[in-house]
UniProtKB/TrEMBL annotation:
PROSITE patterns: RESPONSE_REGULATORY (PS50110). PANTHER family: STRESS RESPONSE REGULATOR PROTEIN 1, TWO-COMPONENT RESPONSE REGULATOR. The lineage of its organism: Bacteria, Pseudomonadati, Pseudomonadota, Gammaproteobacteria, Lysobacterales. The modification 4-aspartylphosphate is found at residue 198. InterPro entries: Bact_response_regulator, CheY-like_superfamily, Sig_transdc_resp-reg_receiver. Residues 15-133, 142-268 form the Response regulatory domain. This is CheY-like chemotaxis protein.
């Protein structure tokens, strides 16, 4: 990947779009963000139309949107961000008073990165946003890595370990399931915080099977055990299917270290590994 495609990942001067019908809410979020991130540029939008116009004027690093807007559903913002050139993996956070209900009823789409309960307040939202645009290392987190190429695995493992992440590498999906089963039974020395898998694996099972089994058979939700899928397939429908099956995010090949590490840290932070892991 070219460096210009990575500009939206980590920045000392991030551009954050805040979409909310209330001018007061937009100002409160902007004020807190500017205090926490002195170099931030906050783009306030009151509607879908304003947000679409802003997206045409330049790339953004993160978007927050409420669901109810004067000209439609906030999920339209998420779709617009994904459709904008170079914006495919910009985090889109839905801020809602009934976000949990939307999640339970599967009303959120693959376009949404995560949700935030607005009852937690603007200070907490600002901290949440900072974790995305300027992610901090999560020392000691353990990644279960499924990759059938030893050469690729060695390179990728070194990338992860350079950022203080522990990596347990297996060659097949079946080996990953055995380790997860042992962990669930309390028979493992490992405590996995994230699964990283290639979509194409030797043997009968693929990366998509890894996603489906973790979500269905193990019944681990996206926060309990985030899954990143590495794929060289740029077909949007195939990508969408992986996300709908339960992948938290995708990492496109060839793997670029900054992109991979940013996504891993995103998901570890969102999972609340240090604070809420025992509660979910």
């Amino acid at each position: 990947m070219h460096s210009q495609e990575l500009r939206h990942l980590i920045s000392d001067t991030p551009r954050v779009m805040v979409v909310d019908g209330s001018k007061m809410v937009r100002k409160m979020i902007a004020d807190v963000l500017k205090r926490e991130l002195p170099g931030v540029e906050v783009i306030g939008c009151a509607s879908i139309a304003e947000a679409r116009k802003a997206l045409e004027e330049g790339a953004v690093h993160l978007v927050t949107t409420s669901l109810a807007l004067k000209d439609g559903d906030g999920l339209e913002i998420a779709r617009a961000v994904r459709e904008a050139a170079g914006q495919a993996y910009v985090p889109v956070i839905v801020v809602s008073g009934d976000a949990q209900q939307h999640l339970v009823e599967r009303r959120f789409t693959e376009y949404v990165t995560d949700y935030f309960d607005k009852a937690l307040g603007h200070e907490a939202l600002a901290a949440f946003i900072c974790g995305y645009v300027q992610p901090q290392a999560v020392v000691g987190a353990t990644v279960l890595y499924v990759e059938d190429s030893r050469v690729v695995a060695e390179t990728t493992k070194r990338m992860l370990e350079r950022h203080d992440l522990k990596v347990v590498h297996v060659l097949k999906a079946e080996d990953a399931f055995a380790l997860l089963t042992a962990e669930s039974l309390g028979l493992s020395t490992h405590r996995f915080d994230l699964v990283l898998t290639d979509v194409t694996l030797k043997g009968e099972l693929s990366g998509r099977d890894v996603v489906q089994r973790v979500r269905v058979d193990f019944a681990y939700g996206k926060r309990r055990l985030p899954i990143l899928v590495m794929t060289g397939d740029d077909n949007r429908n195939n990508q969408s299917e992986l996300l709908q099956a339960g992948a938290n995010d995708l990492v496109l090949k060839p793997i670029e270290e900054r992109l991979l590490i940013t996504k891993v840290l995103f998901q570890l932070r969102v999972a609340g590994m240090d604070e809420t892991r025992a509660l979910v």
